[in-house]
Design brief:
The chain has 311 residues and is an alpha+beta fold. It folds into two domains: 10-172, no CATH class; 187-307, Cathepsin B, Chain A (Alpha-Beta Complex). Helices cover 31% and strands 19% of the residues. The protein is built from eleven helices and eleven strands. It has helices spanning 13-18, 68-80, 82-88, 116-124, 131-134, 141-152, 162-168, 174-182, 199-215, 231-236, 293-299; strands spanning 2-4, 7-9, 89-92, 97-103, 109-114, 187-189, 220-224, 249-258, 264-269, 288-292, 302-307. The strands form three sheets. The protein has a six-stranded antiparallel sheet, with helices on both faces. Strands 3-4-5 form a three-stranded antiparallel sheet. α2 (68-80) packs across α8 (174-182), α4 packs across α6 and α6 crosses α7. This is Calpain catalytic domain-containing protein. The active site is at 68, 249, 270.
Length: 311
């Protein structure tokens, strides 16, 4: 709700995106300042939101901000439901502002306006888009969404978004990000073995759940944690078996399949846009890598997959 000159004006989401105000409650629109005048300079507009192929996970490149849980989830949504990304962001040529639809902790939609200055600030902070690396103006949609998420967590956006970035950029939970982006916390898929269930059967069950989620268009992420070490490894000072993934990190899940040997493999994309300097003996410059699901289960390196809502 916007309070302007003592008059409470409410906006319906679809009408707002079309530029028409109505008297339907339910959305909060935090903005900086009250003016609707067009800014002196508009660097970013609707043409800069997406590349020629539309929203993609490849548009994500996490740099200085520790919000892998959020940007990896953005990448998962772009991969599975690019139209949902398009539907959550709009541009107003009159003001030069973007409007982003996110959700609060109860799943209620929140419309957050992002100004040109706030976008420039995100790039200066080396946020989650590729724009601050390439010097190009797009694809800018990850920076727009990330800025809106920081703004949601800032009690006084008028004085800058440092408080908001401090709140989101020091780690978080994958399900919180899924809810903020989609309005639904999604489902966690964890490895477990039932009574008298073999490891192979448990792996088949887990892989089947992840595969079904991806096949149904659900965005899926993987939350990784430090691998378990055996007592013998601890005594000898060994690291034990390493899965090659960054610990305490969140990845976009792109695929799960069986290889030629019949082993389940998970293809994940690192929001860093590279898998160098991980330090677990499997470094690669590629943003994506395949990891045996059995290794993730045996080492305990996979805390949980998070599967968001379907189309």
């Amino acid at each position: 709700m916007i309070e302007a000159a003592g008059v409470a004006t409410r906006f319906n989401l679809d009408s707002l995106l079309a530029g028409t105000s109505v008297t339907t409650p339910g959305f909060r629109i935090p903005i900086d300042g009250g003016g609707a005048a067009k800014p002196a300079e508009v660097r970013f507009d609707a043409a800069d939101l997406y590349g020629a192929k539309g929203p993609q996970a490849a548009d994500i490149r996490q740099d200085a901000l520790g919000d892998c849980y959020f940007v990896a989830t953005l990448g998962a949504l772009a991969q599975q439901r690019p139209d949902a990304v398009r539907g959550m962001i709009s541009f107003d040529a009159r003001t030069g502002n973007f409007t982003v639809r996110l959700h609060d902790g109860d799943g209620n939609p929140q419309l957050v306006q992002v100004t040109q200055a706030e976008l420039e600030d995100n790039l200066a902070r080396q946020g989650g888009s590729t724009a601050d690396n390439t010097g190009l103006d797009g694809p800018i949609w990850p920076a727009v969404a990330e800025t809106a998420y920081a703004k949601m967590h800032d009690s006084n956006p008028a004085d800058g978004l440092t408080e908001g970035y401090n709140a989101i950029a020091n780690g978080g939970w994958p399900q919180d990000a899924m809810q903020a982006i989609t309005g639904d916390r999604g489902d966690e898929i964890r490895y477990s073995e039932g009574f008298f269930e073999s490891e192979n059967s448990a792996l088949d069950r887990m892989a089947g759940q992840v595969d079904a989620a991806l096949s149904n268009g659900r965005p899926v992420t993987l939350w990784t944690v430090p691998e378990n070490r055996s007592l013998w490894d601890r005594i000898r000072g060994n690291e034990g078996t390493q899965d090659g993934l960054v610990d305490n990190h969140v990845y976009t899940v792109q695929d799960v399949h069986k290889n030629a040997d019949g082993e389940w493999m998970v293809t994940v994309r690192n929001p860093w846009s590279t898998n160098m300097n991980v330090g677990e003996g499997h470094d690669t410059a590629s943003a994506t890598m395949e990891v045996p699901l059995r290794t993730l289960a045996d080492t305990g390196g996979a805390e949980a997959f998070t599967a968001g809502p379907a189309r």
